[in-house]
Design a protein that fits this description.
Blueprint (H helix, E strand, L loop, with lengths): L1 H13 L3 H90 L7
Helix pairs in contact: 1-2
Length: 114
């Protein structure tokens, strides 16, 4: 855009009729000011969009992490169930061991279950 305005100013300055030259220069300046303001407005909007996109990415990241944590909760629950069942099985094995030692002790009273 700078090149375009430079070219317009050069062309207007070539005009030998001062009145026409003055009108052209004023019109070019007015358009350049409007153009520059629009560029500035677009820059402000661009910055707002960048902030909005970052906020959206932050929210999506939170949702993804929370979803992952929810999946981990399912695994934790499954592991808790396995631990509970394993403890029950271990208790049943210990009971069987104690019963086996009691049977052996009936034949040989020196074996301790501990």
């Amino acid at each position: 855009a700078d090149g375009l305005f430079k070219m317009l100013y050069e062309k207007a300055n070539e005009n030998k009729t001062e009145e026409l030259k003055s009108i052209m220069l004023k019109n070019i300046e007015a358009k350049e000011n409007v153009f520059n303001q629009k560029i500035e407005d677009a820059y402000v909007i661009q910055k707002k969009i960048e902030v909005s996109i970052q906020k959206y990415n932050d929210i999506m990241g939170f949702v993804q992490v929370q979803g992952g944590l929810n999946e981990i909760d399912k695994y934790i629950s499954t592991i808790d169930g396995i631990i509970s069942e394993s403890n029950k099985l271990n208790s049943e094995i210990q009971i069987a061991i104690d019963q086996g030692i009691n049977i052996i002790n009936e034949f040989n009273p020196r074996i301790d279950s501990k």
